Amino acid sequence: MCNAGAFLDSGDKYWADDVVSIEPMGPLLEVRGKAAVRAKGEWFAANHAIHSFSAVGPYVHGDQFAARFVADMTVKGPGERRKRDEIALYTVRNGKIVEERFLVGG
User: At 54, which CATH number?
Assistant: First the structure.
């Protein structure tokens, strides 16, 4: 779903109502609740132009899985184009994602 650009649709389908999203940097370091995490995704989409995106994975172990996301994007406003390479670590309970934690490359 992510490779097809359906980020928020995948969240609506798989996030638990009490999901927690943790970022290493930026204005939304920790967001709690499905509606708030969706709003974070909407904010990201409104503030970034995505030129290309790929998702690789999942890599599964027990109740967790990881995926690698690589994006070529431009921050709207200042127009800074950059590549973002990150790993997302997800924790699942009862078939829903209860935590997503993003780790960025150096």
Answer: 3.10.450.50
